[in-house]
Design goal:
The chain contains five helices and eight strands. With 194 residues, the protein is an alpha/beta fold.
């Protein structure tokens, strides 16, 4: 049985939009994640997380952004190779052409498709970005872990990770640790059993 892990760069006010700054034409406050030093521990956390994952699950918008950037990237630690070779699943009713290697489109009911995917994949399935998808996954109790790398900034606007929900959801803090010198904090939450 797969473990669904949501991993996000997030601001203090919950914004996850354009942390890398690649969408300057759409969002004038992008690039915020790279204004802070997350240190070797933060870099190692992101590398280990990616190398240990079995698959990616993405919404259409995040998939399109990743597919435009990752195929041309290389590095010495294996991060880019892993991103480009691991299976990628895209939940979209409109996206037809999946140009990034090892990509499969999932269509239909989100809860059903993701539940099937969790049965098929033995290991961690990472969800990055994909705010609307993450909100649906949380609403359907499909998230096994939230990994938030919190950056000490307030943007005041932008796409937020947590929107209106069909019901209240409780999580318990499993781990917290500061990384780097600038006050970046990793918070790991699991659904509360009570």
């Amino acid at each position: 049985m797969g473990k669904l892990v949501v991993t996000e760069f997030i601001t203090l006010d919950g914004v996850i939009e354009d942390p890398g700054g690649g969408e300057a034409d759409k969002f004038d406050r992008g690039g915020w994640a790279f204004q802070f030093e997350r240190g070797e521990q933060g870099d190692k956390f992101k590398l280990d997380e990616t190398l240990e994952a079995e698959a990616l699950l993405l919404g259409r918008v995040t998939y399109e952004g990743f597919a435009a950037a990752w195929p041309s990237m290389t590095d010495e630690v294996g991060f880019a190779d892993k991103m480009n070779t691991m299976p990628k699943y895209v939940l979209s009713s409109t996206l037809q052409d999946l140009t990034w290697s090892n990509s499969t489109r999932l269509e239909g009911d989100v809860a059903d498709e993701v539940a099937k995917l969790k049965e098929q994949v033995a290991g961690e399935i990472l969800v990055a970005g994909s705010a609307m998808l993450v909100q649906m996954l949380i609403d359907h109790d499909l998230v096994d872990e939230l990994r938030l790398m919190v950056f000490p900034t307030v943007l005041g606007k932008g796409k937020r990770l947590f929107g209106d929900s069909a019901s209240a959801k409780a999580f318990r803090l499993a781990e917290s640790r500061p990384v780097g010198e600038d006050g970046v904090v990793i918070l790991i939450y699991e659904p509360s059993k009570s």
